[in-house]
From TrEMBL:
Identification of the protein by name: Circularly permuted ATP-grasp type 2 domain-containing protein
Gene3D superfamilies in the cross-refs: 3.30.1490.270, 3.40.50.11290
SUPFAM superfamilies tied to this protein: Glutathione synthetase ATP-binding domain-like
Listed transmembrane segments: none
Pfam families the UniProt entry points to: CP_ATPgrasp_2
Length: 472
């Protein structure tokens, strides 16, 4: 695709292969199309047998859908990964400091760097968390940061996912599938491993258990089997060797959380919760919630259980807060950001709103609380009617929207029906924070399988690729 940075090729004619892809392209050139097609069918069948699916709410075609897997990997050289790793650790550290600050001393608000209303009128702000001390001052124990490459190859942060970030199970299963389909590639290339992620996650969760807990009990809390990411919840619990529980499996007694077991109640110290804030405790949040645990917030406030991620973390991954993350890095760490944001227009500002309304056909406009590729306008791909309808929505509630330039997302060769063709991609690395900060090399590469599409979300027809970080 002319005008886009190609991950594999350094020229538009696709004759000059980038150095870190050369060994792979030499192998690919020797593969017969029939073998690649056969391997793709084998992968699809295997994923379906294992149950690696996700639910699409309101989908008339059925509740479960297979996420397409592409067998051409996205390869990142060690030097580039080192920069990404440094920038990701810096960013998540600043975000954790920001969340702690807004629930305690509000230094950043008092300094005038972020308007108070941007925080305290935010739907994800939880006044119940004000003054609560959490273990190690960590709020976002698991962060999924969406990275895109644009322009001449610069990396940008597109989005921070700090509430209940998903997708790591697909990262792990994609790697297992590639090793099963093409074992020879892993003897020919020095690819950094990712299969230790569940052990790393468990170590980080245990490290933030309440003080005085020698052998903490960790559980994964799921809303249940009808949740879109239930496969991932069950997968991670199984891989960590911990119990997968629902709210009904837990109860509070004597300011302690217990799990019901066949051998009687067992104390729970750390809950890796995949349940949204609103549904965690019907006594504190939504009284109609049947997914939560009555009294959980009171135990949490007293420091006798750790929730990962913390209640109220979502205030920092709201798209209205995103434009300020660079300021957070400078304010809390006294450093320049290693990774930059995408330039962002805040429609709540009158002058920026005027620019956005005058350029809707050139911009990507997003709801500040939106996710999954929903509630957004991709101006260059929208019809005049869609643009005019969106214009009315933005005018009616400007503070609910931000806008960004339409990025020329990088492409990676992808095996599609017509053969191998470039498709746009992003990357979601997973950053774990506890007593230390760490991440496995790589992440989940998502690919927009529709030709010309910039929307990589699985709910919008996107697929996934294995992500290789080369060790030298």
């Amino acid at each position: 695709m002319p005008g886009f940075y190609d991950e594999m090729y350094a020229d538009e004619r696709q004759t000059e292969v980038r150095a870190h892809y050369r060994r792979y392209t030499d192998w690919l050139a020797q593969q017969k199309p029939e073998r690649l097609a056969r391997k793709r069918a084998e992968a699809d069948l295997s994923f379906r047998r294992v149950g690696i699916t996700f639910a699409v709410y309101g989908d008339d075609a059925g509740t479960e859908r297979l996420i397409p897997f592409d067998q051409i990997p996205r390869i990142i050289p060690a030097r580039e990964w080192a920069t990404l790793q440094r920038g990701l650790a810096q960013r998540v550290q600043a975000l954790n400091m920001f969340i702690h600050d807004i629930y305690h001393d509000q230094h950043i608000v008092k300094a005038g760097l972020i308007p108070a209303e941007q925080i305290y009128r935010n739907a994800q702000y939880r006044p119940e968390m004000q003054g609560i001390h959490v273990a190690e001052n960590i709020y976002a124990h698991i962060a999924g940061v969406d990275i895109v490459r644009a322009g001449e190859g610069e990396f940008y942060v597109l989005e921070d996912n700090l509430r209940v970030p998903s997708g790591v199970s697909y990262m792990l299963e994609d790697r297992k599938m590639m090793m099963r389909l093409f074992p020879e590639l892993f003897s020919q290339n020095q690819i950094a491993p990712v299969d230790h992620y569940p052990d790393m996650l468990l170590d980080h969760l245990r490290s933030v258990a309440p003080q005085g807990t020698d052998d903490p009990t960790v559980v994964v809390m799921t809303p249940g089997m009808f949740n879109s990411a239930y496969f991932e919840h069950a997968f991670l619990a199984q891989q960590m060797g911990v119990e997968l529980v629902e709210g009904k499996d837990l109860f509070v007694n004597d300011n302690t959380v217990y799990m019901r077991t066949t051998r009687g109640p067992k104390r729970v110290d750390v809950i890796y919760r995949r349940v949204d804030d609103d549904f965690l405790d019907p006594l504190a949040f939504r009284p109609d919630s049947s997914l939560g645990v009555p009294g959980l917030l009171a135990v949490y406030r007293s420091g006798r259980v750790t929730l990962a991620n913390a209640i109220g973390t979502g205030v920092a991954d709201d798209k209205s807060i995103y434009p300020y993350v660079g300021d957070m890095v400078r304010f809390y760490l006294d450093q320049d950001p290693v990774l930059n944001n995408v330039p962002t227009y805040q429609c709540r500002k009158t002058d920026e709103l005027s620019y956005v309304l005058a350029n809707l056909d050139k911009l990507v406009v997003k709801e500040v609380h939106g996710a999954g590729g929903y509630g957004m306008l991709v101006g260059p791909a929208a019809s005049k009617d869609e643009i005019e309808q969106f214009r009315l929505r933005v005018r009616a509630n400007p503070s609910a929207y931000i806008a960004q330039p339409t990025l020329a997302l990088s492409t990676c060769p992808t095996f599609v029906e017509q053969g191998i063709a470039p498709r746009h991609i992003d990357l979601r690395p997973f950053v774990l924070s506890g007593k230390t900060t760490s991440m496995v090399p790589g992440g989940l590469t998502r690919v927009a399988l529709k030709e010309g599409s910039l929307v990589v979300n699985s709910s919008q027809g996107g697929g996934t690729k294995d992500t290789w970080v080369l060790e030298n």
